[in-house]
Amino acid sequence: MKSVPITLIINGERHDLDVKPFWTLLYVIRDKLGLTGTKMGCSSGECGACTVHVDGKAINSCLMLAAQADGKKITTIEGLEKDDKLHPLQQAFVDHFAVQCGYCTSGVILSAKALLDKNPNPNEQEVREAIKGNLCRCTGYVKIVEAVLASTKEGGELR
Questions:
Q1: CATH code reported for the domain at 4-78
Q2: What pLDDT was estimated at residue 146?
Q3: In the chain, where the domains are located
């Protein structure tokens, strides 16, 4: 099967790639570009571990073909850190003990960030709604919700 040339802008860096038409965005991010903060969970869009931002919208990268992302701006968990400093939302997860095994964390953070980009002062129900597509087997989501809500008070600049 022939490859397709695409360009992805991931975390502000341009990547010109030749991809197979059936390769998912998740596969390209993890296996071709080595950005392993995006996790592979279910490969069917059920768990949210592979959540990234595509043009500012949270999506399951296991459900998007890499070719569909041609020319789009993609943000992975690695793209939130600036100047070796965690994003306020990431820091809130650390400060509020919202990370246990960590497998779901990058997807949850990116889902929460998509909410905060639209609504910088959500209530608990809005946070729960925003992360409902992210499966966490370790927590009861209490610490996760607390961290997201705390980031709006403690974090300053959320973008």
A1: 3.10.20.30
A2: 97
A3: 4-78, 88-154
